[in-house]
Each structure stands twice: as structure tokens, then as C-alpha cells.
Amino acid sequence: MPLPPTGIRWTIGDVDPLGFEALRLSIWGAWRIFGGQGAYVVYVNSIGLDEARSRTGDLPDGVVWQTAGGLPSFLEAHLDGAMAEGVAWKLAPLRAFPDRFELSLDNDCILWDLPEAARAWMAEPEPRCLIAADVTLAHGAFADLTRPEPRNTGIRGLPPGHDLGQALLSVLESHPVPLRSELDEQGLQVVALDLGRPAHVVSTADVTICSPFWPQIPELGRVGAHFVGLNTRELPWNWYDRPARECLVENWERHRPELYARVGLPLPAGR
User: Fold this and answer.
1) CA pair distance 86, 157, nearest whole angstrom
2) Ordered DSSP codes for the chain
3) Chain centroid to CA 189
4) Minimal CA–CA distance to 224: which of 148, 139, 155, 126?
């Protein structure tokens, strides 16, 4: 069955170089799935567009680069001063492809095939939203307002015509708290995507939360993996007496050849 018109979006800032390598693989993985029928945009914050393109490397034709922005005023009114490090960039703008199925991927979330839940989402006569499962509950101030299962906005899907702004506003009107952390932002989206009918959930068997730190697992899923933490340049703690960052990079390097193969790219020489 052919896939419907779909737009895929990413957000990237001034992250560790491995985060840009992951973005390149994520874009090529999406291209492998949707090809020339998809529309692709990367929203950039904290650095210039040319610098972001340069750090990412060669990509398929047709990927659009835009400066992130356009956060609605009602959301800005709820941002706490502690959110200065770019929280809510994923919502700036709210929608990139309002007339298409819109799939938002974190730059460190790499797919090489479409998850089962995403196929069900696209096949529904009256499609709802889509979100990824997680292994730990991280919904901040909104944890008690929705299903108890942990979810992660590393994958977020909106059907054509869905008014995400109205859904977010509805949640904030009933629960008017300041957004103080990335967990609050994630929790807000989790609740908003469940309004009306619960969102489809991409399983962690299909797309793992791939990390050496339990309860995350250091393995690839059936169709993808989300390498949480890869964007961070420093992690100020140890894991079994080893620097946490060293463990994270080791996990990435172990999977790197397979990731390139899964998205159809040659492994760069010298690595």
C-alpha cells in the first residue's frame, strides 16, 4: 500500500558533532522510507543555517533548511526562565506540513523502515496522533494527566489538518503551570496528543531507546533506534566507574557501521 503524502521534520542546535552525524543518518533513513514523495525540513537554532548544513554533510536533494521560530505567544507566556537552553524548539513552529501527515524526529532518532504503529496511524480512516514509547516516565508536571505508560517525543506524528496549537492551549488552560524543563515540555505534548483519542504508540521493540544506561538498552530496534544523550558534549557522572560520556560514545561507535548499512550509506573512510 503506498504511503500518503508525508512531511518529515527535525530540529537541531549547537550540539556535539555526533549529533550532526546522527542527523545525517536520520535524514537518509527517512529518505529510504519516503523517497522523493516525502517533504523534508530541518529547523535550526543557536547556529547559522550554513554552519548546520556543513556539520551535517551530504544529504538527499530537496531537504530544506530553515531558522526555527514562530513559537505561539500562549506558549511563550508559560516558559519559565530556567528553559533558556532551547526547550520548546521542537514547537517552533508548531507545524511544518499542515496539509500532510507530519512526522517529527529527534536528530538522534534514526529509522530505516516505518514502525508498525506509524503504518497503522497512516492507514486509519480518521487518523489520530502518533508518539514513541519510552522506558521511564518523564512527563514532568503533566505526569498525572494522561496514561501511565511512559512516552517520548523523539517521534511525534500529526495527521493532516490537526490543530496542535489548540490541543496544547487546551491542556495549559486546564493545567496552567510554567514549563520549567524539557520534561515539562514533553509531558505537555504527551497529554495534548492524547486528547480525543489516545495516540498510537511506537513500541520500544520497533525503535529502542538506545543507550548503555539501564533501563535503556544498548541495542537497535527492529526498524530504528533513538540514541538519547548523544547530543550532549559532557555528562558529569560515571557509569560503573567509567565516564558516562565515554560509555555513550562507545555504544554509538559499536552500532555505527550497521546504522550506515541500514540507511544505505557507505561507512566513511577512516572510521
Assistant:
1) 21
2) -PPPPEEEEEEE-S--HHHHHHHHHHHHHHHHHHGGGSEEEEEE-SS-HHHHHHHH----TTEEEEE-----HHHHTTB-GGGTTTTTGGGSSS-S-TTSEEEEE-TTEEESS--HHHHHHHH-SS---EEEE-SS---GGGTTSS-SS-EEEEEEEE-TT--HHHHHHHHHHHS---B-SHHHHHHHHHHHHTSSSPPEEE-TTTEEEB-SSTTSBSS--SSEEE-TTTT-S---SEETTEEHHHHHHHHHHHHHHHHHHHHT-PPPTT-
3) 12
4) 155
Give all strands of the β-sheet with 224-226 in edge-to-edge order. Answer: 109-111, 224-226, 207-209
Which residues partner with 130 through β-bridges?
157, 200
Q: Which is it for strands 200-202 and 151-158: parallel, antiparallel or unpaired?
A: unpaired
56-68 residue pLDDT tens: 999 999 999 999 9
The predicted structure's pLDDT at residue 229: 96
Cell readout for 170 is 487546551
The C-alpha atoms of residue 30 and residue 9 are separated, in whole angstroms, by 10
Which amino acid is present at 86?
A: G
The reply to whether the predicted model has a pTM over 0.85 is yes
Q: Please tell me the distance from the alpha carbon of residue 103 to that of residue 41, in angstroms, as a whole number.
A: 11
